[in-house]
Amino acid sequence: MIHFQNVRKKISIVNFVRLLAMKLYDIAHSRAGDKGNTLTLSLIPYEEADYDLLCARVTAEKVKNHLKGIVSGEIIRYELPNISSLLFVCHDALSGGVTTSLAMDTHGKTLSYALLEMEI
Amino acid sequence: MKDKIRIGCGAGFSGDRLDPALILVEKGGLDYLVLECLAERTIALAQKRKLQNPAQGYDPLLERRIESLLPLLAKNKVRLITNMGAANPLEGAKKVADIARKMGIKVRVAAVFGDDVFEQTDPGALALETGKALAESGELISANAYLGMDGILKALENKADIVITGRVADPSLFLAPMVFELGWDAGNYDLMGKGTVAGHLLECAGHITGGYFADPVKKPVEGLDILGHPFADVFADGSAIIGKVEGTGGVIDLRTAKEQLLYEVVNPREYVTPDVVADFSTVILKETGKDRVLVRGGTGKTKPPTCKVSIGYRAFYLGEGEISYAGAAALERAKLAGDILEKRLKNKVETVKTDYIGLSSAHRTLFGAPTPPYEIRLRVAGKAASPELAALVGEEVEALYTNGPAGGGGVRKYVNEVIGIVSTLMDRTQIRPEISFFES
Q1: B135 in a domain, yes or no?
Q2: Measured by CB atoms within 10 angstroms of the end CB, which terminus of chain B is less buried, N or C?
Q3: pLDDT tens for residues B31-85?
Q4: A113 to chain B: nearest residue by CA?
Q5: Cβ of B282 under 8 Å from any chain A Cβ?
Q6: pLDDT band for position B393 (cuts 50, 70, 90)
């Protein structure tokens, strides 16, 4: 939350943009799920009014770029306007699959918070 | 026919807490209790136990759960449906009847089986994940088809108080009592879709009551140590109200319901179970009171001609070792140790993976430039063909105690056999649910 009364009046554009820079964590929550080698990530804004902002800013391409160290395959985004939520289905994302991966978190359960690290 | 039933979910996986189910049965006003205790790999591990002892292979917690639940189920006239039969529903059901007999409680127990399709499975069939023949994955040890609600429905029609199943699609455990009590037509796919939505919302228990949802900074939830598990009032029109017992911890609201609705969904417009292809995109959620969410919408069309079959195979032996470094240059020392271990292990085990716990082990990547933490735990994992070879990983980690670098401590080492899972599709005409009854 930006308190405008605290912002100096002659603020530069650069600083204003920096103030606006925030992580998805600030405005949305997420849960990760797994099916074989596919990772699912929901993205749910705390305020339903932010749904349009998420639709505009959090595209499948941007998420693919953000998660490039994690997701090798295609990312499909589903829009669910009835519940003001997005769902990202990430293929080839769990180091070969839940049952045979050598990773610490074989299910990718912690990865919801990897998505929420994304700056918007 | 009833116009409303209340179904509780007292466990969302095999290792779930035991007490929330007791509270649900004692104070929840339930008609049915469901315990969902089978993950994808759980049944393959259970098959392994059954191979060693034909009287085993049901859920390892079955006795403890049933012993504590039985008196309450009988007193409150709540029927129980659970997939705790795992790889051996027949022995699981017999065990339940035995326990009831010893406690002097009269129950009729049904075992629903027929999900074990190992005999019918063609090792040459293609695995969905790899596109190659199943047998190429490794030595096959189990094949379990996802049954729908049919077997459970028949058990309920035949007056079972307790239904013990093997592999059944999770939402079908919930859909069966809805169809039975509310008089739904199994060919009414719209209702099957709605019931599947309610089942999916319940199936992970503490997920929807704010447990796995909680984040003390952004999503604080009270009473996680006494987290309540959910129930749903399901109405004849397919709508449902999710709730929990008053006085239990947790929260049910739009946020928890949305997280669970989308959990593990790979296509919200086509959520496939053996009973229906459900559409979750039409679901509408509304908070109707404290810890109450109304679920409407949700639809369905047809049911798939095939059923998914989970195949377990012997994959490899996993060797792991861990060691901690703390204080000045902790990360540098851990990285040196990691380099040494990779050199020492590279010709001995198949694949070596090095993780720096506290830095990058869970997300496998870094976002931005995090400051090095005060302490780091090095974890090394390797694949091997035998337990002896896998043990080398932990042995090499332990050897760092004298061979350095400096200040490593707290070594732990593990060896485990890894059962891999692939899946294939089988025509539903090849799969026949079967039922046996046992009386106490």
Answers
A1: no
A2: N
A3: 999 999 998 888 888 988 998 999 999 999 999 999 999 999 999 999 999 999 9
A4: B363
A5: yes
A6: very high
